[in-house]
């Protein structure tokens, strides 16, 4: 199924324009950076196909009940992220103690960013703000500005909370500090809590960093690279986004997202085909999966031809096929060319799906048949390949012997040579600013800490 979308280059990633309204297909009508909010809050409760959002104002008691008081939590379950609390535009991965269902996908790892959001994707890249996020208030926050600013997270096995505590906007420090949090509950609920919002959110500038409040998810597919024919390039397609009205984000307000059923929850063909969901669920018998075709498993859905398989088929048809394939009258010969080629083609496709850098050179046709018949036609081994392997083995052996010698003779000239030139500081991955857009870098914990706070466990 071809996707007619316009895309935005992203250093090897492509992010298309978001849908103009909550739906399960991308829309090519608006650029990602200036798209109108597809899901506006007209009332206190809105249905966004994948979630139902409920807004609670400052005067409603439930907004205070949804706030998780991290200060009163078990101190062993609260972590102050010392790296994020001292840096700007950085992100760090954290492992959850439970599987969190996000758009129907169980996630165990998330990425916390200093800019007031959580990145929910599997692949880390520099444009984390584009899609696949949980953003209570995405903006250009700099926790490193003040010693009182911290990024704290809390996990008690049923809820995971990230709190941006007394953080300041870069270049807008005179406006005051912000304190807000995002809570991920084990049942899939997501809660945004706002304790201190010192200024109107629509007034926050997005010239240096996107300003967003809401949710987003995308799927990733592999496309042939136009520059290198034998390589494949990852492309990210945002299939759903929820944007909240930023004017409703005020001090002591809260937003609760309750997940709605998706096709992925159905585990059988009958349940999938009889589903009354609005996603047009289809059953893929090869993958044993129910899907609309628009989720994070889209690559497999396309590779195994699930969309074509489901056309005009019923669950009884699949059961009849299983019965025929299990019949004792059905014979299989390893020398049957058609069957062998079909099976091998499917196997190679699954391998190239996992390998995002190179395509299998024998992906079909004569090349595949030759690869499957080494007895009839072998691939010649070049002399240069053998020489290269021998040189590589000798180089590795020399390095190992040199290391053993230096370790046993610490006062030798070779040992002193390396000691004098060893680095005195091993930095974590540093952020590189880009004049055109905001970028993030993943960091690793180090021993740096803020005055007045104990160092937390490494993330």
UniProtKB/TrEMBL annotation:
Any one GO cellular component localisation term in the record: membrane
Membrane topology listed for this record: Single-pass type I membrane protein
Coiled-coil annotated spans: none
Region (Disordered), start-end ranges: 14-44, 315-338, 438-459
Major subcellular site: membrane
Ranges that cross the membrane: 381-406
Keywords: Glycoprotein, Membrane, Signal, Transmembrane, Transmembrane helix
InterPro entries: Plexin_repeat, PLXDC
One Pfam match: PSI
Similarity comment text for this entry: Belongs to the plexin family.
Protein name (record): Plexin domain containing 1
Native species: Pan paniscus
Gene from which this protein is expressed: PLXDC1
């Amino acid at each position: 199924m071809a996707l007619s979308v316009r895309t935005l280059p992203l250093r090897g990633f492509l992010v298309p324009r978001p849908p103009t309204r909550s739906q399960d297909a991308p829309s090519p009508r608006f650029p990602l950076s200036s798209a109108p909010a597809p899901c506006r809050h007209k009332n206190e409760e809105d249905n966004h196909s994948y979630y139902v959002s409920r807004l609670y104002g400052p005067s409603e008691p439930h907004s205070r009940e949804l706030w998780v008081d991290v200060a009163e939590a078990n101190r062993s379950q609260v972590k102050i992220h010392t790296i994020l609390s001292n840096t700007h535009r950085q992100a760090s991965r954290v492992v959850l103690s439970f599987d969190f269902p996000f758009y129907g996908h169980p996630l165990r790892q998330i990425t916390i960013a200093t800019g007031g959001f959580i990145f929910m994707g599997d692949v880390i890249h520099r444009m984390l703000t584009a899609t696949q996020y949980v953003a209570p208030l995405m903006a250009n926050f700099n926790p490193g500005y003040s010693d009182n600013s911290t990024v704290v997270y809390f996990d008690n096995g049923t809820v995971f909370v990230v709190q941006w505590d007394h953080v300041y906007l870069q270049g807008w420090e005179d406006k005051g500090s912000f304190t807000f949090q995002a809570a991920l509950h084990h049942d899939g609920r997501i809660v945004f809590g706002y304790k201190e919002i010192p200024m109107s959110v629509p007034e926050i500038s997005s010239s240096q960093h996107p300003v967003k409040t809401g949710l987003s998810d995308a799927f990733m597919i592999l496309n042939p690279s136009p520059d290198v024919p034998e390589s494949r390039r990852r492309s990210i397609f945002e299939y759903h986004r929820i944007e909240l009205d930023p004017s409703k984000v005020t001090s002591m307000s809260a937003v609760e997202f309750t997940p709605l059923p998706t096709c992925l929850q159905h585990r059988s063909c009958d349940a999938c085909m009889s589903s009354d969901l609005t996603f047009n669920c289809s059953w893929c018998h090869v993958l044993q999966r129910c899907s609309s075709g628009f989720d994070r498993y889209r690559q497999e859905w396309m590779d195994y031809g699930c969309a074509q398989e489901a056309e005009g088929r019923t669950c009884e048809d699949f059961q009849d096929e299983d019965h025929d394939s299990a019949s004792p009258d059905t014979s299989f010969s390893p020398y049957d060319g058609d069957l062998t080629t079909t099976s091998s083609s499917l196997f190679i496709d699954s391998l190239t799906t996992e390998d995002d850098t190179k395509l299998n050179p024998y992906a079909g046709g004569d090349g595949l048949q030759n690869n499957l018949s080494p007895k009839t036609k072998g691939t010649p081994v070049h002399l240069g390949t053998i020489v290269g392997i021998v040189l590589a083995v000798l180089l590795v052996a020399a390095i190992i012997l040199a290391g053993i010698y230096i370790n046993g003779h610490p006062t030798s000239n070779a040992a002193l040579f390396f000691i004098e030139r060893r680095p005195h500081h091993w930095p974590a991955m540093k952020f590189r600013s880009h004049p055109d857009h905001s970028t993030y870098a993943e960091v690793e914990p180090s021993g740096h800490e803020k005055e007045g706070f104990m160092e937390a466990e490494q993330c």
